[in-house]
What does this fold into?
Amino acid sequence: MFPENIQIETTTLCSNGCIMCPYKFVSRPKFMPMRLIDKIIDECSGKNVTIIPHQMGDPLSNDRIINILKKCKDKKLEILMSASGLLLEKEKASESVNIGVDIINISLDSLNKEIYEKIRNISFNKIMKNIRDLLSLKKHRLKYGFRLLIFSSIKLQEMNLLIIGNRGLIMYR
It folds into this structure.
């Protein structure tokens, strides 16, 4: 039996400074070798597998991520990409969607700007802009459809605000 999900730690790099992350204690190499990534993708080919190019770092910190995503789609594999959203600016977002990334998961810990920035140490406004840009891509239905997931520990009252403000988001608490 083959696993349904395969997590590939394409990089341990991350540009955030989240208070809960053990990143500073990670001593693994910064990038997984491409030959190993290629081997994993080849072994998954022809199977009903979701590739998750993320473990500890932000996959968008890896300059090779677009090529990795293309290889996955060439092998007809589903992709769930999880990221902070900081590096998911218009160009990378558009490339990811056009390649056919099936699910884009952004971690959003609060809708309160001050709380979010204390937890993630990144700009709340930039993340919200990137989320709006992703929703715009979804609205304009680029080459492929995709789902945008917001993985969160947001309070229920905050989630209702987000759902009302951005119809079509799939939310998890």
The mean pLDDT is 79. The beta strands are 5-7, 50-52, 78-83, 103-107, 147-151, 170-172. Helices lie at 34-44, 65-74, 90-99, 113-120, 124-139, 156-165.
